[in-house]
Amino acid sequence: MPEVIFPGPEGRLEGRFNPGPRPRAPVALILHSHPQAGGTMNNKIVQLLYQTFVRRGFATLRFNFRGVGKSQGLFDNGIGELSDAASALDWVQSIHPEAETTWVAGVSFGAWIGMQLLMRRPEIKGFISIAPPANMYDFSFLAPCPSSGIIIQGEGDEVVTPSAVQKL
Asked: Dihedral (C-alpha) 48, 107, 27, 69: value to the nearest 10 degrees?
């Protein structure tokens, strides 16, 4: 899992990238939880998602949003982080322009950013949203959601309420 540095809207972004094992391998982009709550690409759930996509033959990228780890810039309340995610997807697609499909996966804040990215990028065909913060952010932009995927919510989550995720 080589370390990569690629250009973002506010400077360099740090990531870990595993290229696809074959031509036309699908692409997966993984987004971490809230940077101001300690979220990084090294979060255990982010790493498990990364390893799962790699095992399934995806060209897989996880990265730190601006201001986290070696990524340059400052936290931007989701606006800049959405731009970071778009830059990350552009970068991985430049490495694998022949990808047959693209997935986005996110944890909490990363799930919110990932779903916004999904609505702006028609090449994203699948998603995994883990603990999307439906009680903290507006997800009404998803109606209707153009892709298939899965939303995962833990019953014991102390931040994101299961009822808000169920409503989403």
From this structure: -80
- Does residue 3 belong to any structural domain of this protein? no
Beta bridge partners of 117: none
Q: What is the pLDDT of residues 19-55, one digit of tens each?
A: 999 989 999 999 999 999 999 999 999 999 999 999 9
Q: Which pLDDT tens digit goes with each residue over 143-160?
A: 888 999 999 998 888 889
CA distance 117 to 123: 10
What does the radius of gyration of the chain's CA atoms come to, in whole angstroms? 15
Instruction: Tell me if 15 is assigned to some domain.
Output: yes
Question: Phi/psi of residue 146, each to 5°?
Answer: -85, -5
- Give CA angle at 111 (138, 17), nearest 5°: 150
- Strands 3-8 and 11-18, by their bridges, are antiparallel
**φ, ψ (nearest 5 deg) of residue 158:** -95, -5
pLDDT tens for each residue of 122-138: 999 999 999 999 999 99
* Residue 161 counted as domain residue: yes
DSSP-derived letter for residue 140 is: G
Question: Is position 75 within any domain?
Answer: yes
Q: Using CA atoms, how far apart are residues 92 and 41, in angstroms rounded to an integer?
A: 16
Domain that holds residue 154: 8-167
